[in-house]
Amino acid sequence: MIPVGFEYTRAASAEEALALLAQYGDDAKLLAGGHSLLPLMKLRLAQPERLIDIGGASDLSYIEERSDHVAVGALTKHRDVEQSPVLAEHVPLLAHVAGHVGDPQVRNRGTLGGSLAHGDPASDLPAAALAIGATLVVQGPGGPREVAATEFFHGFLDTAVGADELLTEIRFPKQTGLGWGFEKFNRRAQDWAIVGCAVQAGEHGGVALVNMGQAPMLAAASTQALRAAASAADVASLADEGTDPPRDLHAEPNYRRHLARVLVERAVRTSAG
To answer: What is the pTM of this model?
Structure first.
């Protein structure tokens, strides 16, 4: 389908993007890589009157090692995340998951911040952010604020980013030398996951699930068991607790629950080396 007509404006910086959001209000939408918004517009599920293109905001694209974390700008491309030597050393789970997003065209155009701000429960990168315990920095008229990944995803395609706000940075605590695992079950290599999971080992590690609810979610019971050094089987047995998996043409909820337990056990075993 063809989207309804809209006006187009480019922002050269985060500051300019925020000024444009303040000017146009609820009638405007931010455009980064475009892989989430444009399909919605073609289906006319989203009909913004104005697109604010932030793809050229170079101040939002970076990967920086800091004292206890690695900061990634929201407009950093998936491919850059995948290939970053800093992330490979200190946050290898994130680099690995970025390499499994879509196809090469998507990874060279799509952005980390775009994926997280979209909040799709079937997306891989939100699960990585949850498992690692990321902190997301959101900028608005009142200045920046920090939001824990566990508080960021509110519901289906609904996040903590307000209509007049912009996700600017994601901070990942260093996981240097710690184990991790990622599993994803799909029909074809480039499909959305029917079910997936990300596991970060360590004292503050976590287990997060893909496509097991209305929003990206941390598997709370499994995470608690993982931190308590429970066996892989015990961690996996709790994986579907508190989930609400969807029913669609790909799978029934009970099948997704089974997949979650199987995949979490595999990922936990991988993370244990």
So the answer is: 0.94
